Amino acid sequence: MIVQRRLHTQRLIGQKFSTPAEAVAFFGAVQAQDFLPAMWALGMRIEGATEPTVEQAINDRQIVRTWPFRGTIHFVTPGDIRWMLALSAPRALKGNARLRELELDEAVFAQSRKVFSRALADGQPQTRATLYRTLDEAGVSMAGQRGYHILYRHSLEGLICIGPREGKQQTFVLLDAWLPPGRELSREEALAELARRYFTSHGPATIKDFVWWCGLGAAEARAGLEMVKSQLAQEAIGGEVYWFDSAAVIMEITPSPLAHLLPFVDEYMVAYKDRDAVSLPEYNALVDSGNIIFHQPILIDGRVAGTWTRKLKKDAVVITTNLLRLLTTAEKDALAAAAERFGSYLGLAAVLE
Predict the structure, then answer these.
(1) Is residue 351 within 8 Å of 316, Cβ to Cβ?
(2) Contact between residue 69 and residue 84 where contact means Cβ atoms under 8 Å apart
């Protein structure tokens, strides 16, 4: 029940989204620290998407990347970015011992804030390397990981956000200059909206899953759920209460087997504290990192069956698989079809190894 419903809820089967902005708005936030896999996470849920059409949505400012939750980069929409940052920033900025180790205090942040405001005032995106050099020239040392933490701090404050790529380089822009004004929500309204968005887009899920995903305190997460639970359905499974969209209870029958090539830290895997429903715990010992979440999973009917990597050639993408169990002939055919879908997204022939 959990697997089948999540596949439908997350639009890995059934009706697809029309645009990247529609997909991101539905989820609220989509984890996106690794840019190319993150675009595929959207692309596989959007009808007829290609890598260029997803990136164009970023260039057109329909979606944007920043650090709203768990200290991790996500895609969000312009209308949501400010209230999400306002909700998460107080907890994220509280008691960061690493800042003390790096000697980053309020005086340094005040100086770097002025540097960024001047450097980005003309509206032109600047690469991370350029901003680091500008800070260094202004007397703000970039030793250690100071640069990253300065970017993170000012992103949480809503001063800057990630802009479009310049070649393969990440850029930054002033948030208020780059995006139009968004919604203003009280903290209670924001908690309720975030809970509603999470459980309708990720359900069935538990309160533990929501706490993990949003990175807020358990009390606030529970308060958010309490405010919207009348809009949700619930079911007790294995001693846990799972919440999900009450309008998505009845689902169409899906052909089986069906394979997916999930990207790194896809919402289907990363958005839950407990992943046992979709991946056997013993699989962690069969991958180099010791945790399947740090690899790109192959799904068969919603459950992990292996991992995959890609290598781009001139006119093809070579997909190398590491299967964690034997596949039937029908499952191999489903995997080949999944590889073809990924190749179509890239505009390349897919070679499955």
Answers:
(1) yes
(2) yes
In angstroms, the Cα distances linking 40 to 2, 106, 150, 163, 349 are 23, 38, 29, 18, 16
CA atoms lying within 13 Å on the CB side of residue 69: 26
Tell me if 192 sits within 8 A of 229, measured CB to CB. Answer: no
CA dist 312 and 296 (Å) reads 16
DSSP class per residue in 60-123: TTSSEEEEEETTEEEEE-TTTHHHHHHHHHHHHHTT-HHHHHTT--HHHHHHHHHHHHHHTTTS
The model carries a pTM of 0.95
Residue 248 confidence class, pLDDT cut points 50, 70, 90 = confident
State how far the alpha carbon of 70 is from the alpha carbons of 235, 292, 335, in Å.
27, 19, 33
Using one digit for the tens of pLDDT, what is the confidence trace for 25-79? Answer: 999 999 999 999 999 999 999 999 999 999 999 999 999 999 999 999 999 999 9
Residue the block writes with tokens 């701090």: 153
Dist. CA 204–CA 337, nearest whole Å: 27
Contacts of 90 (CB under 8 A, 6+ apart): none
CB 201 within 8 A of CB 29: no
